[in-house]
Amino acid sequence: QVQLVESGGGLVQPGGSLRLACAASGSIFRILTMGWYRQAPGKQRELVATITSGGNTNYADSVKGRFTISRDNAKNTVYLQMNSLKPEDTAVYYCNTGKLWGQGTLVTVSS
Q1: Per-residue model confidence (pLDDT) at position 102
Q2: Which of 53, 74, 78, 82 is least surrounded by Cβ atoms within 10 Å, i.e. has the fewest?
Q3: Concatenated DSSP letters of the chain
Q4: End-to-end CA distance of the chain
Q5: Can you tell me the distance from the alpha carbon of 88 to that of 95, in angstroms, rounded to the nearest whole number?
Q6: In which residue ranges of the chain is pLDDT below 70?
């Protein structure tokens, strides 16, 4: 069974950058579509970005041009590079594949 563990969250100033990582256990990682979601306080969880096994990507309009999702199948890891961060990007970020979710990592964008 695949397990997901996120890392890389923290406090960053507006305009700054962070890179999140999601390490997946299991030998089937390379065939999985992976995604990043986020949930801000008082709001529903929303899609941020996805990446297929073939490397095709999809982004929410709110992060296009600022965030980049990538994967390293040799390391069973998916990344989310977040640049030009805004206060409205503050949320708990979750890694996902199918019905599986990681525990989440908090990103706070504040001066």
Answers
A1: 95
A2: 74
A3: ---EEEE--EEE-TT--EEEEEEE-STTGGGS-EEEEEE-TTS--EEEEEE-TT--EEE-TTTTTTEEEEEEGGGTEEEEEE-S--GGG-EEEEEEETTEE---EEEEE--
A4: 40
A5: 19
A6: none
